[in-house]
Amino acid sequence: MKLCQSNRYDWVCRTVIRKTRNRRTRFLLPEKKVGRAETHTLMAGRIKFFKEYFPFSNALIKCFPMPERNARHRKDFTRRQFLRTASLAGVGGLLAGRATNALAAETVTMPFANGERKLVQFPQKRPLILLTTRPPQLETPFAVFNADLLTPNDAFFVRYHLAQIPTEIDAEKFRLEIKGKVNSPLTLSIAELKTKFEPVEIVAVNQCSGNGRGFSNPRVAGGQMGNGAMGNARWKGVRLKDVLAKAGVAAGAKQVTFNGLDTPVNEKTPDFIKALDVDLALDEDVMLAYEMNGEDLPVLNGYPLRLVVPGYFGTYWVKHVNEITVVNETFSGFWMNPAYLIPDNAGACVEPGTVPTKTKPIARYNVRSFITSLADGDKVNVGRDLTVRGIAFDGGYGLSEILFSEDGGKAWREGQFGKDLGKYSFREWTIPFQPQRAGAYELKVKATNRIGQSQPVQPLWNPAGYLRNVVETVRVNAV
Known about the structure:
Blueprint: H1 5-19, H2 36-53, H3 57-62, H4 68-71, H5 79-87, H6 89-95, E1 107-109, E2 116-120, E3 128-132, E4 137-139, E5 158-159, E6 175-180, E7 186-189, H7 190-196, E8 199-207, E9 230-239, H8 240-247, E10 255-260, E11 273-277, H9 278-281, E12 287-292, E13 295-296, E14 306-308, E15 321-327, E16 341-343, E17 359-361, E18 368-371, E19 379-380, E20 386-393, E21 399-405, E22 413-414, E23 416-417, E24 427-433, E25 439-449, E26 472-478
Parallel strand pairs: 6-15, 19-26
Antiparallel strand pairs: 1-2, 2-3, 3-4, 4-5, 6-7, 8-9, 9-12, 10-11, 10-15, 12-13, 12-14, 16-17, 18-20, 20-24, 21-22, 21-25, 23-24, 25-26
């Protein structure tokens, strides 16, 4: 009996999982129960995805000759098996002579209650901090931000709202539809976007609205993230306004909505659709990106096309965007209202445990700054010079000052900004630090932007855990 390749992939996946079970490998999404015909179609697509992104997979298959008896019992290739197989890139890499730690049984403990997290590896990603598997929510380990101003694609955080995400996309067949209140509805391929419109690049931070939510006190509902739900990348694509100009925005248009290929599992769950006011949609810097740091977008970061709204929270950066609709009224879909609303006051905050009386949609980033070269509990040497390094950013107004304190905020001195990659980018800062005595030091950093916005010394609270931008603290010991 000749075994089909799909059954062999399925068997290898199970075999490797069994052989590595003692390493506590867990890279799963809940499986979707489907009929036999649909399962066959999904199986073919997922195997294609696995083979495309892990070219060593054929070598992996050859290393595990599959017994005939197993073929009869391995005919369905489910969503769970796909993600399990994809996560075994580390095993394939080892068999092919590549260095990787994908199967390391590692966990991290975030500095808040119930903070233990697993490090897992999804397709095109290094091991990242797992929040949820369905939908995928992966946080960047904070040490990554000390390595470079640009966050590597394989380390970039992942945040979905809907569990039915695309696992195979044919870029040649993909189409972007522009419709609604336009003079000439359009349907564009990726090739047409690349050849018929001027390409542009911009370096910009993408930050989840709930970055740092896990630190909220009292705790709030939602993904309990540390400070790794952010990343900085060089995005390449076309201006949204150029595409809209080609379609011709009709008079009276008020907003533009964006929908992507990710869909809800339950028909009662609202589709993830976001909206921008027309004026913002026509801003020079808003773009449809097809590249990230000089490469195609990773699938989990929006391949083959995503909306980039520099300076605005990531909720607006719709992934796999394939529908743009111009409307003549304020869009009131669930993910605009009631979701992603903040208190409508100067600090976007209320007394802990209370609810706001008036709200508005979340919009621009506030000012944030971090120490990246040191972490809580690190030891430093008394009398030895060292350079403390970190990053800062805001919503695009530009940073004007960075202040550092080594005594818990009693005294502050000014640091120096490094290379400027643009007003939407992370900005590196540095300052010399020489501990003069043994003991504990409480290091703090605070940034200010060009319109006078800064950071509060005490955290501000709102029911959704959005907009955290407190002055961050790192505690070290000098020995």
